[in-house]
Model the fold of this input.
Amino acid sequence: MFKYISEILGKFSMGQRIIALLLLLLTITIISITPSILDAFTQDNTELSEKIEKQSSEIKTLNIEIDTLNSKIIRNARQCTDDILEREQQIMAEIDRLRNQIENTPVVMSREMRLYDVNDTIEVTRQPASVTIEDPRPKLMMDGLKKIKNGIVEDMKNRSGK
Done:
């Protein structure tokens, strides 16, 4: 085999031999360097395994933090709702107190007198004894308080999910 190669090389000129040798050296160099170049661009499994373990532990840490923050949000939302319900109950108690006060306060009006406000002054007019005058303000206040209380009760039912 080497005999044939030497015969072939003997037929080449000096310039062709140099080019053939350069091509041979280049091929040998490429064949010897290629594995180290490939190793430089690829990672082995240990590096990847370490990277995956690091990312897994980071994900676990972040999941714990997310759970903690979600718990805080739920606790704060529940506290806020409880505060609102407590405030609404206080308002309802005040409405009940006002209703009781209105119901138990007698309307001081004589059948002969009627008080009314005209431009920030109070005028007194005499009415005949046969005319009965009823003050509509307590009834209007009671109706208004009832409407407010019903709205609050409905809102409380909606919030508590009942």
Remarks:
- Residues 43-160 form one domain.
- The first helix runs from residue 2 to 11.
- The chain is about 75% helix and 5% strand.
- Confidence is low (pLDDT under 50) at residues 110-114.
